[in-house]
Amino acid sequence: MNTFAGEIITLLLMAFALGMDAFSVGLGMGMFKLRLRQIFSIGLVVGIFHIWMPLLGMGAGRFISEKFGTFATYAGGLLLIILGIQMFIPGKKDESGSRENKMLAPVGKGLLIFALGVSLDSFSVGLTLGIYGAKTVVTILCFGIAATLLTWAGLLLGRKMQGLLGVYSEILGGSILCAFGLKLLFSL
């Protein structure tokens, strides 16, 4: 196998591993009542963040990588816990009796926080890849496409589970987000 094919396989595996964050969190966020158009948009935003964060990381270089890698993991874990906890907080009920989205629904600022939270680790990986001279365009395309597809898969699966679980879906979604955030915090 030539070195370019080996590099592509390595980058795809890394992109898949990093995209699993987006899948796991998407699974929890899919518990919100989301329309397909929102799911499509969320996947694209997460994919864009998974392009820009490693690109910024690759450009930042070696001197930041050791210090920022730990910070990124802590920040990502805390963001996921905050998103999970806010799903437990009861919102106001509208006329139909369903709860409104809470502080950080996956729209607007909440969507940006969500996308940032699941892509912070790709910044750290980008730092490392920049040190080793990985091909920038190939790297960011692999990361962006994998994150987009895995986010869509997580959101769609979460949406299906939401319909099956009814009122307990937000509790399950919040639990998934908190568990994943705790895993990030204690994996150091």
From TrEMBL:
GO terms for cellular component: plasma membrane. It is found in: Cell membrane. Its main location: membrane. Pfam families: Mntp (PF02659). InterPro entries: Mntp/YtaF (IPR003810), Put_MntP (IPR022929). It comes from the Bacteria. One of its GO terms (molecular function) is manganese ion transmembrane transporter activity. Keywords: Cell membrane, Ion transport, Manganese, Membrane, Transmembrane, Transmembrane helix, Transport. It is a multi-pass membrane protein. The chain crosses the membrane at residues 6-27, 39-59, 71-89, 110-132, 138-158, 165-186. Belongs to the MntP (TC 9.B.29) family. Probably functions as a manganese efflux pump. This is Putative manganese efflux pump MntP. It comes from Peribacillus muralis. The gene is mntP.
